[in-house]
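Re-running the complex after MR caught last week's input typo. The corrected sequence lines follow. Everything else is unchanged.
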Amino acid sequence: MNLRRRAFLVGGALSTGAAVFGGVWAARAAGSESADAARLTASQGWHSFGGWIQLSDQGACTLFVPHIDMGQGVQTALAQWVAEELDLDWTQTRVALAPPDSAFANGALARGWLAGDVAVPAWLDDAADFAFKRIARLRDVQISGGSTAVRYTGQLGLRVVAAATRAALLEAAARRWRVATPGLRTVSGRVIDPGSGRSAGFGGLAAEAAGLRLSGRPALKAGGFRIVGTSPQRLDIPDKVNGRCEYGIDTMVPGMKAVAVRAAPAHGQRLIGVDPAPALAVSGVSQVLQFDNAVAVVAETWWNAQHALLQLQPRFGQLPGSAASFTAVSSEALEAAQRNALEAGDRTKDVRLGNVPDIEQSVIAAGGRLIQASYQVQMLHHAAMEPIAMVASWSDDGLEVWAGVQDPLGARAALAKAGGMPMSRVRLHALPIGGAFGRRLPRSIEPALQQLVDVARRCPHPVKLQWSREEDFAQGRWRPQLMARLQAAVGTDGMPASWRCLYVRKNSEPDAAHIPYRIGAQSIEWVKDPAEDWNVPSGPWRGVTHVQQTWYTESFIDELAHAAARDPLAYRLALLEPASREAKALQYLAKVTGWTESRQAGTGWGMALGRGMGTVVAIAIRAHAADERVQVSRVVAVVDCGLVVHPDTARQQVEGSIVMGLSAALHERITMKNGEVQERNFDRYRILGLAATPTIDVHFVGGTVVLGGLGEPALPPVAPALGNALASVKGIRLRRLPLEAPFG
Amino acid sequence: VADDDDEGHAKVNTRVTLQVNGRTHEVEVLPGEPLLWALRERLGQRGTKFGCGIGLCGACTVHVDGQPARSCVTPASAVQGRAVATIEGLAAPDGRLHPLQQAWIDLQVPQCGYCQSGMLMAAAALLKTHPQPTDQQIDAAMTNLCRCGTYPRVREAIHLAARKLASPGAAA
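Corrected-run output:
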């Protein structure tokens, strides 16, 4: 990786300029940040365009992408935007990870967020404390999350830089040949003058073009895409089939030792004491380190360290005089407290339309009825296949870290804070991640970064801190346990005249509780999670708040349809704006599933509608009753994300979201008892395997404009579609996830 | 991580001889040290991944005498004198990819890629015993966990590689 050979030169870049991307970037193309970006990525024989794109004298192109690869394939999709606008030869296009520097902050992401143009990324409020609010909101974010990479970074950022680079190359050729720029064309890495037949490769023009001022408002292609909309092979895959892709856990640096750690299993507890002797007696062990809430063993190899750690019997507990009782936390206590909060807690309004109590009374007076249901979700672990593992070296020169994080720039700031040093003294080598799903977003990964720094500063050599799978589970940042109560007043026609949703809110839920259905009277309210101060960590999990809110909304609307003895798909359609993206997605779903003919006894389809991150997804799931069990045989997804840049990785993301959604809906649950997580490995935290994975069909119904992301939106509707399929096939309505039992 | 050491204390290193991808290595390991960590940390072959440490997720799958084995629960000392094959040895010595690796690229199977070394080794072992596996045989053999959800493509890619192996000249 190029990054490893580079020194980070910038310290003062934090204080000046604005975001690099898009319009903001264009306005400041000659300003300090693009100059910084250029300096950070400079190398011999290469010419920089805004710091983001480099052309070599031989005509090769490297683009610097600020998003981490954690399996989503965005680097290829972003390279497509650049190759498209710049008319590159695809085989000459390469991607490198942008350095974790503010010159490469996600300006486009921030811009999309501030403009509010599509959907507010729901995870952002969780991330916001960390970076957005602290450093002038626009500045210090380099996040791979919120399904934002292609629609913001690509659409608003790299694409614009590429078009400006193409304009500069045209201008350089026009000057050389003394002709007018409009007469020239670009084709696959060359500038061509159709008038004279002359042509020149980009490589031969790069030096001159790089000296020109980049256009602030380059013309973008309106259509007729050559590369966008095709599926070139992903650039990262060859190294993922031969074992050569290096993740954080694979990092080796000279002189490094390995560290195994055990933190207090009940969150909030402290390390009271530990006898280090049994670990020190193990060959290869050099140190036993004690921290506020953890004990760590340093040894020659990680298994060595972990083996020695298991010989220790650390005593964790409360400090004398501490009031809180951390060990009282249990899943049952959480549930009871939340149930109580729904009854008696202070309510805050999300949405109020019409007068709900009046409508309810008049519906009942006219012969209608109230339908009520409560829904619950359990805590979920990210359970990425790569457990947390990072390398650090603390020396007089500062701190050098190798880690896979979803926001390298934010992580670099967090490392600086943890080490009590300026950011200029922190070097971060951002590595591919063996799955993240939100686990390595800023606030969630910060305690692990702090732990890494605490260990590194006490060791006279580089360290690899690696968590066992048990530690990874025990110290998670889980999707919280939550619940909601819904109520509708249904007229004699079976249609809802009012909709109430009262939900327990942890952190914030911008718009996930909003419903797409045209119901005139609505009351959506929340109560604060009473367990917020209970030392139960939480964090964004793939799909974020949409996961629970879609479970509530789409289960309940289905119940209303069943109560009205109406087809659930037709029932939803009747409540949607006919021209809406949602209605179109449902109609398409009906077509591809042959919906009306498929509802014979014993075989059931369930469906659900999801909206989030700018994308609409309709999902149908087919379940069969087999003896006492229920089997899932097929999932069909209709996805409207607008323009699809790379259809195959888009499909991959939807397939993956569906598998993860099924896994969570069927099996996944973190249970708290005495303040400790009960599931510490895959034996008790079951995730879906290959054999139980059904056939998955994905249909894209987008248009020509980029609208939404793809990393998450297909996940939330999976659970309600599955619950609705179960209701259809067995007549059983389950309102608590995971569904587990009937699926065996 | 299971403690495989009956003594409870691993104080003394022992020397073992490992044959990995056709080469012989002498390494010092701790008593009970799993093959996974001998490969990763003593031999520097880090293509084999750590996932769970209890032999469940399959990220650490290697071959021992051609049979798939979960190297995180296989003591290094137990495979002395036996042929160990890892992801680094799956391609031919001249670099030609194994048909499964090519199928993995053709169908763009990996996402994050972390579990894929184990997936490929499990699939390679399956094709040795069942050159034309049925879906049921794939279900039974492929117990490796993948959090990105690559399972549908794993299944397809195994079928594709099997077809290519059956008629090497034929196009995909």
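None of the earlier attempt is carried over here. Residues 1-33, 105-143 of chain A have pLDDT under 50 and may be disordered. The longest strand of chain A covers residues 615-626.
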